[in-house]
Amino acid sequence: MVEIVVVQMMLDHMSETHSSVPFANNPTCGHPSVVVKNIPEVNARLWKIKHLVEITPITFPQGPPQEGDYGGTFLKENGEFVVSPRLQVDSARIEETAKFIGDESKMDGPTLKKQLRLRWLNPFNLD
């Protein structure tokens, strides 16, 4: 089994002190996290940028998830992979969402924008 680690980009000292940098004071938006495999190819790339990243191994405090538990899981910033049954999504809800997205009778964004623009330009056209 391949071990998986979380790589989190760290901002340099200048971005933490200047407010002109977007998301500098928000701890959740300024540090993107990436999940990568712990294999030699990835490790060689991370070695080159080790001064820019923080590597955190993923731990399973409740044990590794079973085959059907992936829908109710989340990954914390400290690398804990938590299984929560409260986050499990009902399969009927997923099917209804897929049916709604694929529905041909609803208008997509560009079509709706075009139709509303035509109504704005021709307000009293009853066609």
From TrEMBL:
Q: Which domain of life is it from?
A: Eukaryota
The name on file for this protein is 39S ribosomal protein L30, mitochondrial
| Native organism | Timema podura
**Family matches, as InterPro entries:** Ribosomal_uL30_bac-type (IPR005996)
